[in-house]
Amino acid sequence: MSTGTPTVTPAAVEVHGVHKWYGALRVLDGVDLTVRPGEVTVILGPSGSGKSTLLRVINHLEKPEIGYVSVNGELIGVRRQGERLKELSERAILTQRSRIGFVFQNFNLFPHLTVLDNVAAAPVATGRLAKPEALALARELLDRVGLADRTGAYPRQLSGGQQQRVAIARALALRPGVILFDEPTSALDPELVGEVLAVIKDLATSGTTLVIVTHEVGFAREVADRVVFIDGGRIVEQGPPSEVLDRPRHERTRDFLSKVL
């Protein structure tokens, strides 16, 4: 029986006063960010600016030293205990992460599983779907990303672009309210970038909340509702692409764009 196209309620994301450091290195320095439900937010910035760390803080792969994140009003990774924030159990954090899709730079597929089983694994492991329903959903999602003919292949038999499309289908399988993309094309050969961006572009028109870290400025201009420029762990400026990319207010943003455009 068909599972139908997954129905998703887009989530709102709030980042409140987040600081993160490694030893003496301050990676995030008081970041505040609001992503509205269904919004596509693209984060740009130089290497080492804190972009990827910010994504990892959103789903609590990295724990902030100060500040907190909420998704649809639910604190992520912590709970309030009086005036303090107390870390949740690992099981509770994993449950929260299952509602926040994450697409990594380097795919992170299970090498011993077929493409179909890679996509079906999470709904089964979390108890969301029985195996037959999960496999049916996986087939639908692989068809959506243009890989209906590769369901029996293993990751090593795919190109990088195909592996990243499998990773996107896997993220969709848990029907997340928000999907985070951490430089999804940076590990790809240039000729494979377009096929992955086309899948993300399709998602961007579907109403799913997306937060995308990328160096693809042209892609940001095309799909983003809002562009955020981050440097030195701080948000320098943010706004519609027509403002941040075409008429940046801050000199640091202008300097960055002059080197990548």
TrEMBL record:
<dbReference type="InterPro" id="IPR027417">
    <property type="entry name" value="P-loop_NTPase"/>
</dbReference>
<keyword id="KW-0029">Amino-acid transport</keyword>
<dbReference type="GO" id="GO:0016887">
    <property type="term" value="F:ATP hydrolysis activity"/>
</dbReference>
<comment type="similarity">
    <text>Belongs to the ABC transporter superfamily.</text>
</comment>
<keyword id="KW-0813">Transport</keyword>
<keyword id="KW-0472">Membrane</keyword>
<dbReference type="InterPro" id="IPR050086">
    <property type="entry name" value="MetN_ABC_transporter-like"/>
</dbReference>
<dbReference type="GO" id="GO:0015424">
    <property type="term" value="F:ABC-type amino acid transporter activity"/>
</dbReference>
<keyword id="KW-1003">Cell membrane</keyword>
<dbReference type="InterPro" id="IPR017871">
    <property type="entry name" value="ABC_transporter-like_CS"/>
</dbReference>
<protein>
    <submittedName>
        <fullName>Amino acid ABC transporter ATP-binding protein</fullName>
    </submittedName>
</protein>
<dbReference type="InterPro" id="IPR030679">
    <property type="entry name" value="ABC_ATPase_HisP-typ"/>
</dbReference>
<keyword id="KW-0067">ATP-binding</keyword>
<keyword id="KW-0547">Nucleotide-binding</keyword>
<feature type="domain" description="ABC transporter">
    <location>
        <begin position="13"/>
        <end position="257"/>
    </location>
</feature>
<dbReference type="InterPro" id="IPR003439">
    <property type="entry name" value="ABC_transporter-like_ATP-bd"/>
</dbReference>
<dbReference type="InterPro" id="IPR003593">
    <property type="entry name" value="AAA+_ATPase"/>
</dbReference>
<dbReference type="GO" id="GO:0005886">
    <property type="term" value="C:plasma membrane"/>
</dbReference>
<dbReference type="Pfam" id="PF00005">
    <property type="entry name" value="ABC_tran"/>
</dbReference>
<dbReference type="GO" id="GO:0005524">
    <property type="term" value="F:ATP binding"/>
</dbReference>
